[in-house]
Amino acid sequence: MTQSRPSLTIDDVPIAWRFDDGDLLFGGLSSVLFWANPSLFRMLSPLVEEIGTDLFRLLVARSSSLGTAEDYRDVVRLGETFEQGFLSWGRLVSMAGWGAFELPAFERAACAATVRVRNAWELRMQAAGGMRWGCPFLQGKVIGIFGRALEQRCWADEHIVSEGAEPVVEFRVHASDRTIEDELHRLRLARLRARQAELTQHMAAAALELRRKDEEVEQKERLIRALSAPIIQVWDGVLAVPLVGVLSRERAAPICEELLDRVTSMSATHVLLDLTGLSEVDAAATGQIAAIVSSLRLLGARCAVVGLSPQLARTMVELGISFAGVRTYQTLADALRQVVGLTRGPARRSF
């Protein structure tokens, strides 16, 4: 033993400390010493919370079972019978703090066994942590070692016997078609299906909300169109359409469609198209106004244009659009007086 590399041997297991390298060798393998609680518990508990107890247990069990080929070779080497070798192996790993191993029952012909671990390290770790996920590490070791000893697939059911000052866990080994890999696949598939169902539900809810919002937008657009271009019956057979704001092709088209429908349904004979409130009209919309006037003529309704601005008039001239035969008025009042006969005298005037 040197000062920088002290060592000792317990039950033929060499333990050495390499202070210069910051390493601990247990049985010749580089090892790390952690406190069961809080160090290991604080390291593992966030993973349990993140992925869930079932998936965590299976992942740990699979990982611990991967080294059981070497463990089984040690078991065979350490005893004349499997039982003796397993208990000797248990004494070796107990020196690493795994717990005290017992083998109350082993029936090779029946493919059955009971493994008891007193003061199991996983239970000690969880005792003061406020979370419980059992002993998947020890379960994976038992499944792997006994599967090789019995030369067939087996499973180890875990039973927590005691969680007191000296916690005890029992593993009841029996023949089974279950494997850790199969259980992992089944669990992942179930989680995937659950996630897909959740996503489908979220998508359906999102689609429903989108349809609701689309309907709200459509209602608002209809309201805006109605407010910006209301079709008002001002007299029997007389409709007034005051246009406000910016008139584009996109806005003019539905106004024309709705106006023609109203003229037909109400048997209107006169339409007053009030352009006084328009702030901007593009060339395409100017053509739409002309189309509205022409369409009204085809339906037999007379159209009068109110508030034609100089800018709009110039645009119409530049585009070669003519309102020949269409009466124009400066104000809606002038047009109303003319159309409904609100001038002096009993007779109504037409245009």
Output the CATH class name of the largest domain.
Answer: Alpha Beta
Order of helices and strands: EEEEHHHHEEHHEEHEEHEHEHEH
Radius of gyration from the alpha-carbon trace, in angstroms: 45 Å
Structural class: alpha+beta
Please bin the fraction of helical residues.
40-55%
Distance between the termini: 123 Å
- What global shape is seen? rod-shaped
Return residue spans where pLDDT drops below 50 for at least 5 consecutive residues.
none
Protein name: Anti-sigma factor antagonist
Organism: Sorangium cellulosum
InterPro entries: Bact_StressResp_Reg, STAS_dom, STAS_dom_sf
Domain STAS: 228-339
Map the helices and strands.
Elements: E1 7-10, E2 13-18, E3 23-26, E4 29-31, H1 36-51, H2 53-65, H3 68-78, H4 82-94, E5 100-107, E6 112-118, H5 121-127, H6 136-150, E7 154-162, E8 168-175, H7 180-228, E9 232-235, E10 238-247, H8 249-266, E11 270-281, H9 283-298, E12 302-306, H10 310-318, E13 327-329, H11 332-339
Parallel strand pairs: 10-11, 11-12, 12-13
Antiparallel strand pairs: 1-2, 2-3, 3-4, 5-6, 6-8, 7-8, 9-10
Describe the structure.
This protein is of the alpha+beta class and 351 residues long. The protein folds into three domains: 33 residues, no CATH class; 142 residues, Muramoyl-pentapeptide Carboxypeptidase, domain 2 (2-Layer Sandwich), CATH 3.30.1380; 110 residues, 2-Layer Sandwich (Transcription Regulator spoIIAA), CATH 3.30.750.24. The protein has eleven helices and 13 strands. The chain has a five-stranded mixed β-sheet with strand order 9-10-11-12-13, sandwiched between helices. A hairpin with a 2-residue loop joins strand 1 and strand 2. The longest helix is centred in the middle third of the chain and has 49 residues. The radius of gyration is 45 Å and the shape is rod-shaped. The termini are far apart. Pfam families: STAS. It comes from Sorangium cellulosum. This is Anti-sigma factor antagonist.
